[in-house]
Amino acid sequence: MHRKSKITILTGAGISAESGLGTFRDRNGLWTQVNIEDVATPEAFARDPAKVHAFYNMRRANAADASPNAAHHALTKLQNDWPGDVVLITQNVDGLHERAGSEVLHMHGQLDRALCAACGHRWDAPRVMDPQDPCPDCARPATRPDIVWFGEMPYHMEEIAEHLRDCDLFAAIGTSGAVYPAAGFCAEAAMAGAETVELNLAESDVSASFGQRIEGPASSAVPDWVAGLLAGR
């Protein structure tokens, strides 16, 4: 690959698993412990905001106590040292990419941000949120996590589409390939002429779409892959 090539990377829950944050769809994953319909839809929030806030307060605390692992740091190194553009898109809401020093597009929102369901204002979330917390802008008690729930449109989709169309290499790291639109990113990039590579602990739902696959824990597979790119291999 040419040294000035543009790289677009998508990361999922698998990249944060070795930081102690659980994935969602494994046998012991988060969605086996709680019903999606109870905590991760607009309807759930309307029905029982206290239950939804309790779930995300727990996740926010877990993420705040976690630390970036070698995979997060390797992607920061790639962004800093690659002579072309490196665009990092994440499905994760944990903030570990930023704490490793990366610039990232959050397509599913962020645990450390709050959103007013009434007026759309956003602000930094406290560690513990409550349904009665007033919005700093409109003062209404409509505070919710700034998280994209099932049935809602992910953030930055137009910008992401541009990055998929004009990249030379698309990589997916630690993603299940089970949730659209992200599951279709490989096909979009390949259709535009990009090389594609998947780095994952095991096969995903869309592994067959990738031109190359690298299996292994993210904390070793990602640094090795980044080292190879920077060495020109």
Please give the radius of gyration in angstroms.
18 Å
CATH C-level class of the largest domain:
Alpha Beta
Structure annotation, total helices? 9
- Helix amount: 25-40%
Strand content: 15-25%
Give the overall silhouette.
elongated
Which fold name corresponds to the CATH topology of the largest domain?
A: Rossmann fold
| Topology as a string of helices (H) and strands (E) | EHHHHHEHEEEEHEHEEH
What's the multimeric state?
A: single chain
How would you state the average pLDDT, rounded? 92
Strand order of the largest sheet: 3-2-1-7-8-9
Strand tally, please?
Answer: 9
| Number of separate domains | 2
Features:
233 residues, alpha/beta, Rossmann fold, 3-stranded antiparallel β-sheet, 9 helices
List the helices and strands and how they pair.
Elements: E1 7-11, H1 30-33, H2 36-39, H3 42-47, H4 49-65, H5 70-81, E2 86-90, H6 96-99, E3 105-106, E4 109-116, E5 122-124, E6 143-147, H7 157-165, E7 169-173, H8 185-191, E8 195-200, E9 212-215, H9 218-230
Parallel strand pairs: 1-2, 1-7, 2-3, 7-8, 8-9
Antiparallel strand pairs: 4-5, 4-6
Helix pairs in contact: 5-9
